[in-house]
Amino acid sequence: MKTKLMSKLFSDSTPEEFKNEVTNKIEEAKVNGTSELKDEENDLLFADLGDSVIAEDKLNEDEVTRFSDNPDDENDIMMEAVDTSEVDDDDEEMIRKR
Fold this sequence. Notes:
alpha+beta, 3 helices, globular
């Protein structure tokens, strides 16, 4: 399963500025607990979960993408789609509070 955000980040047609902004927002969430990327094309809420950062995409049916460090390459971030139907109530409550 792939989220629209993942597709956008993997696309060669996506500007590097957007990819860099997402990376910056991930790092900001690690420091501050949350961050947001909101403009006319995006409404992303990032939340630090300790071992990873999630991005909730409010414009695309609340899709959630998880970003985590690649243990094999310190310069790489791994992405995966989160099936929100499998998120337990405690995790969801923690995410919503951020």
